[in-house]
Amino acid sequence: MATFKDLFIEDDKIKLPIGVEIDGTTYDTVTISEITGYAEEAMGSKAIGNNWGKMITALLKATIVSVEGYTGDLLRFIKGLSIGERDILFLAVRYVTYGNVIEGESKCRNCGKEVNYTIDLDELELQHEGARSVTRTFELPSGLKIRKPDGTVKVLRKGTIRNATGDDQEHTYSLLEKNPALWKTAMLQRIVVDIEGEEFTTIHSKSLSKKDRDYLMVLGNEYEQAPDSDTLVCPHCGEVTEVPVLNPGFFR
Ligand SMILES: [Zn+2]
Question: In the chain, where are the structural domains located?
C-alpha cells in the first residue's frame, strides 16, 4: 500500500500524485516549511473565518517555499490543486512542524467515556492508490430525465466529472455550513464537466435523484489522497468510531 510518507522525496519536499496542470505543464513537486507566525496570523484572519478552503489556501501560501519548475502566481497553483492534494500538503506541514504523531481525545458515542488516541502519520495509508487522473467518466444509476419540447423524455446518463479544486472549495464552503444539500448542488454544477456532451447546469444538478447526486459526490473524490478520518476502537466497550486525521485545530 502506498502511504502518505512515501510522498516525501526529501524531509521537506513532497511529490504529489497528480499536481496541477498550468499552461500545458504539470507541476507536482512542492517544498514546504514548518508553520511560522506569519502563517498562523494569516490563517487566523477575520476574512477567513471558518472557511476551511480559505484557511488551507492561507496556510499553503505561507508555507510553500517553492513549486519545482513553476515561477507563476503561487495562488493560482494552490487554488488549482485538488482538495485531496491540498489536504496532503496540510498534513505535510503538520508533519514537518510537529512530527509524525497526532494525539487526540474523543468521547465514545456508545459509553460516553473519554478515549485518547494517536494517529501515526508514518503509517497512514493513502486511499484510491494509483488513481491519478483529473477527470473520470460516469454513468448515472438513475439518469437525468429531460423533457423535450415535443413532450418526449430523454434520459441522460453518461458524462465526465473532474476533481474538485481549492477554488471550488473556497467558493462553495459558505453553503456547506448553511445547507449541505445546497453545497452539493453548487459543487456538482462546478465539477461535472459535461453530461452526454452538454453543459451541466444548476437545474440539472437539482433535478438529479439523490442517489445519482451521492454517486457523483463519491466518484468526484476517487483519486489518490489521504483519508479524512481514521477508525478508533473504544477500549472500554469496543465501539468503533471515526476520528479526524485532518483537523482544523492543528495550528490554532
Ligand atoms: Zn466506549
Answer: 4-129+225-251, 135-219
